[in-house]
Amino acid sequence: MNSKIMDIKKIEVWDGNMAASQAFRQADIDVVAAYPITPSTPVVENYATFEANGYIDGEFVMVESEHAAMSACVGAAAAGGRVATATSSQGFALMVEVLYQAAGMRLPIVLAQVNRALAAPLNVNGDHSDMYLGRDSGWINVSTFSPQEVYDLTLCAFKIAEHLDVRLPVNINQDGFMSSHTAQNIRTLDDKTACDFVGPYKAVNAMLDFSKPVTHGVQTEEDWHFEHKAKQHNAIMRSVKVIDAVFAEFKALTGREYKRVESYGMEDAEIAIVAFGTTYETAKIVVDNLKKEGINAGIIAPRIFRPFPLEELAAQLQNVKAVACLDRSAPGGTVGALYNEIAGALFNSPARPVLSNVIYGLGGRDMTVSVLTGIYKDLVKEAATGKLNGTIQRFVGVRGPELNYYNA
Amino acid sequence: MLEIRWHSRAGQGAVTGAKGLASVVAETGKEVQAFAFYGSAKRGASMTAYNRVDDKPILNHEKYMKPDYVFILDPALAFTDDFTANSKESTKYIITTHLSKEELMAQIPEIQGMEDRVYVLDCFAIALDTIGRAIPNTPMLGAFIKVSGMFEVAEFQESMKSVLGKLSQKIIDANMVAIERAYNEVN
Lengths: 408, 187
Prior knowledge:
The structure holds two protein chains of two kinds. Chain A is an alpha/beta fold. Chain A folds into two domains: about 10-255, Thiamin diphosphate (ThDP)-binding fold, Pyr/PP domains (Rossmann fold); about 260-405, 3-Layer(aba) Sandwich (Rossmann fold). Chain A is about 40% helix and about 20% strand. Chain A has helices spanning about 15-25, 40-50, 65-80, 90-105, 130-135, 145-160, 190-200, 220-255, 280-290, 310-315, 335-345, 370-385, and strands spanning about 10-15, 30-35, 60, 85, 110-115, 140-145, 170-175, 185, 260-265, 270-275, 295-300, 305, 320-325, 355-360, 395, 405. Chain A is globular and about 70 Å long. The model of chain A has no long low-confidence stretch (mean pLDDT about 95). Chain B is about 40% helix and about 20% strand. The mean pLDDT of chain B is about 95. Chain B is built from seven helices and six strands. The longest helix of chain B is centred in the C-terminal third of the chain and has 17 residues, at about 170-185. By secondary structure, chain B is of the alpha/beta class. In chain B, strands 2-3-1-4-5-6 form a six-stranded mixed beta sheet, with helices on one face. The chains are: A alpha/beta, B alpha/beta. The interface between A and B is medium-sized, with 25 and 21 residues. Strand 8 of chain A pairs antiparallel with strand 2 of chain B, so a sheet runs across the interface.
């Protein structure tokens, strides 16, 4: 634990950025190396303030770019310390090369990623383009839906990443502005409870352990590369046990429950929306409204985007008649990623719901209760007829002519 | 659910005000939300900030709202912003102006006949007299607690002291006077 304790209230009003900064502070990190970018800037700005005021015993390293930030994180993690950083959008894009290095070298770095659109056109607001950009990098990817969840899951992230059966980096995603700059009530843990929950850092093959010299990031070529990548994939696939165990431990400590697949109203649902981020919470309001009208609607989200909870999602969608997969990222010439993932999850199962893909909210375009209600009302028609109410893919909330693609 | 929309210029303290109000209201056990719509706002650009207050956790993340209260922190925005957008029959408006209520209402067709739900005060004059800077956010909060009846003025001042915690005692004291003056002067 840091030597100087911060006095925080049981309920604070923090935005998602402050929630990430405070979780970082309480996790007693050895090295944070970061380069600021909107909307994640306050994560490191707050952290630097804590450091300047003596609340951080570890190092805070200012670097010249996000590529350098992640490189410094890789170096510090290989040296044998607990490491974290934060970024968004273009900064994340610049980090991508090093993300693969971090995962391949099995370094348990935690990244607070505040999701934002990718240019061009330049836009600082929230969508999931950057989250999707990193999805194959070998990082465990977590989607949060509110500032409270950012706080809770950032603490969990260190414990998952550093577990000896995992040793992989973890990316905690939150929606730019909708979570990062939205202040809400946060139930906090005191410094000691939080730090004890995260636990002490366990170094593995630390480069600064001179009694046991090791090398990191070696060249393998055809002879060993495949075995390393297979082992790495096996580690992320098997991390589900650790994720479930950490979530169970967190629930025992706080009463707050997290699952690899979150759902609401799905028990008797005939229609469902699948979506990431803050949209999940807004959809809960719509689900309640619709149930009062006698419409059995549900909302479901992969809390853990990677390793993808394919079996759990398929199991929960067996009894629905129509599903809309919502992607908040420009799909660049195909259906959205969530549509593909859900279609893939259902293909080897008996269920054949009508499946559609909705592109929404790019560049921070508001996802309203009214738009969500409209999507559910379309699902009602599709469930009744057993047929798509148009094409497979459509755009909502965008000006100009209707955009529809792919006939069933 | 109580919803508030702030119309302000970037730099006038609307975000700080919205977060400050949220912190004070959270002390009473309520669930709160404070956020802003920035775009790439430069100092002086028109922007909006928002509050939601409820008895249960706030799940709504849409920016759209039908506000119960609209605050206008800059006198000119009453003439240039569409501040009655998405309003309800009961929406109350608290407007910073050096004009009297009658003079202001005569110039803004959108609020004709709303004498019972338009409130005015000069947040700038109050802030300049007390804090010494044209930051209209704390006077606006003083006016809000009078209009809403949500808090006793002394109770609110006490909570605001902890929100302003990091500032010097002199500035905190000046803010307390600003809140009280706004509470008494809004009409």
